[in-house]
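Below is how a single chain appears once it has passed through the pipeline. First comes the sequence as given, then the structure the pipeline wrote out for it. We keep one example in the README because the format questions we get most often are answered faster by looking than by reading.
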Amino acid sequence: MQLTPKITQILNHLETIQPFNPQDSLDGARKFLETMSLQLSGKKESVAMIEELHIPQENHQIPIRIYRPKGREAQQSSAIIYIHGGWFIAGGYETHDAVVRKLANKTGSVVIFIDYRLAPEHPFPAGLNDCIDGVKWVFENAESLGIDPDKVGIIGDSAGAALSTAVSTQLGKQLKFQALIYPAVDNQLNSKTWETYENGPVLNKQGGIEAWAGYLPEEEKENPLAIPVLIRDFKETPPTLIILAEHDPLLDDGKQLSENMKNAGVKLKTSLYKDMVHGFMHMGELLEEVQSAVDEMTDFAHQNLKSDE
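Resulting structure:
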């Protein structure tokens, strides 16, 4: 494995991160992602406005954050729904704040971030249901949100890309595109790239086994909505961009998902980011590839939103 000097510098730094006062391994994993994102994401762009709302459900509320891009006052704005990664057990507003700001400003779209419930406290299908209900709410409230319901796409990274894939099989006719960043779509962790990168960089197999165990109840182990590599029915799936990282244990799983979509006739673009590791979108302090990926997602969004903006 040949790593670039910048990636080596980042990985050496990750070795030094000590989550502050972790209560247990789960708390440690959550704090590690927060610390990594805070230290490596780089300077955050300013946006026009950020609003936080709660979508009422029967027994809980779904928190969402709405990012309005700088310099855009359009009443009928295009919109992107963002589903975050973190192995289904970690992540939230702050871990993905920097990249979501970039996406809002570059695309000129309102970005709606769904802070879905996390495992193991809330195993599958809780997080997926929050994502589906959140997307439905956006469409139902498009007018009051200042959003054009005919110009909405979805983006997810890692575990969030698995959730996005599942959401789009259910609601894809309403979505104009999806972008999936290094998707975590298989619970088997037995691919060639998992063999190669069993101990990292960034992810390791033991952490993956524990995360899936907390997320996936025994009775759901054959459910394609939980394990998107098992999905065969992509009838509703909109045009899809899949972004993969070269030195990522999830690379082969992402390639398999891409192959399955291609065989099902999905309009698809797959893009491999050479030299990159899992989670590189959090590493904008040093990696110009973060902006390259934002630019690529923006181009894909604009093509499929047929936006005049």
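The longest strand covers residues 147-157.

See the next section for the split statistics.
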